[in-house]
């Protein structure tokens, strides 16, 4: 975890967890290793996000998970001024981004943009994943979130 994300997610927010069906467990396991993994069809080799039991392209049930480079392109963004949870009140504003992954069939992931939330942001800017570790405690298992930051000079 980097200094700029060490307190990005404030205490008091519910911790993410894989669904009981285990569909996205490989994603969460990958984040703990600081790897970005996404679903890919073993038949037609199409990438997809979010995880599903069936390929969006060919309807195959033969899906796997593959590591992809943790970089992308800023496709869209929104500066949030009203918190979706009371624990986020002190973190306003914050940036929510839609990142396109060119090395994974241009699938898109939603995440937060770390750094100065009031800085100018350009569509098309290069971004890289930042893995934010949380050690959990009590009934909460350790987990890692994928955040994004703009690559200097992009």
Question: Mind explaining what this structure looks like?
Answer:
There is one protein chain. With 154 residues, this protein is mainly β. It has one domain. It has one helix and eight strands; from the N terminus they run H-E-E-E-E-E-E-E-E. The strands form two sheets. The protein has a five-stranded antiparallel sheet with strand order 6-5-4-7-8, with helices on one face. Strand 5 and strand 6 form a beta hairpin. The longest helix has 8 residues. The protein starts with 24 loop residues before the first helix and ends with a strand. The N terminus is likely disordered.
Brief digest:
The chain contains 1 helix and 8 strands. It is mainly beta.
List keywords for this structure.
8 strands, 5-stranded antiparallel β-sheet, 3-stranded antiparallel β-sheet, 154 residues, mainly beta
Total of helices? 1
Return Rg in Å.
16 Å
Distance between the termini: 22 Å
Tell me the strand order in the biggest sheet. Answer: 6-5-4-7-8
Task: Describe the protein's topology.
Layout: H1 25-32, E1 36-41, E2 47-48, E3 63-68, E4 71-80, E5 94-101, E6 107-113, E7 126-134, E8 143-150
Antiparallel strand pairs: 1-2, 1-3, 4-5, 4-7, 5-6, 7-8
């Amino acid at each position: 975890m980097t200094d700029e994300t060490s307190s990005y997610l404030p205490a008091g927010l519910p911790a993410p967890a894989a669904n009981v069906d285990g569909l996205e467990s490989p994603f969460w396991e990958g984040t703990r290793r600081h790897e970005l993994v996404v679903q890919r069809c073993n038949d037609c080799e199409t990438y997809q996000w979010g995880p599903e039991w069936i390929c969006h392209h060919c309807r195959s049930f033969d899906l796997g998970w593959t590591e992809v480079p943790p970089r992308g392109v800023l496709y869209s963004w929104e500066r949030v001024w009203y918190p979706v949870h009371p624990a986020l009140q002190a973190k306003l504003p914050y940036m929510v981004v839609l990142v396109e992954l060119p090395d994974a069939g241009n699938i898109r992931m939603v995440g937060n943009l770390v750094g100065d939330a009031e800085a100018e942001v350009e569509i098309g800017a290069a971004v890289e994943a930042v893995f934010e570790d949380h050690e959990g405690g009590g009934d909460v298992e350790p987990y890692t979130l994928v955040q994004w930051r703009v690559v200097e000079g992009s």
